[in-house]
Amino acid sequence: MNYSAPFSMPRTAREELLRNPFMSNLLLRRLSAADRAVLEPHCIRFDLLRNQRLAGPGEPLPMFLFPEGGILATMSTDGMRTEVGLIGREGMVGIGTILGGSAEMFETFVQVDGAAVIAIPADVLIDRVAESPELRQLLSHYLLYAMLQLSFSIVSRSNQMMEARLARWLLMCHDRMPGDEIPVTHEFLATMISAQRSGVTVTLHLLEGEGLIRANRGRITIRDRAGLETLSGCTYGKPEATYRELLGEFGKTHGSGVY
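^ that's the sequence the OP posted. Answer follows.
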């Protein structure tokens, strides 16, 4: 997979990367000084474009990707396309590879653009993981969080009504956005929560009527986060709490504004 062709890196981005390459992504921010010194010379920054495909099932991953913002969606493509996880500046693309696989297990693409990723060659990061206990522990904690997110996605899709599934998904997007607005279409929402587009439209109207959100064309604004958390039930909160316990602050909780 050639990452250089579809991306650009303006001079200002290159200068910023040289000044401080590890501050925007929350995982890279927590690297030790020794790990930073080894990895920093190999970092490349790429712009993200909406709907850009970053990884595919069965494809080797030449670079691990660490988003600085935006939202990436991870999808299962066996049969019906189904969302299995979201990734923002708290995470990384490359779980299958870091676990020792020769290829990625899921498709990952850009859902919300407006940011960039820091890319590190796969062989460089894997070699450093073998040498650094601190880096192994950091990535192990992230893998635990990602496993929990996947598990609760399965529970939500299998057991919850559409209102709860939609509330959970909106909360996860809200955690990864700097404000309260989420740019998303009804059609894409339907794909993410495994529902019909018409059902998503009706459910959004219900949530809007309860004062939880405001739905405009191509954009949803979160109005009552606590209400959405209540509606989502047990399927939202545990992975996010685990991330905060093991890796540090992430997301938003009852208007705290942490991002």
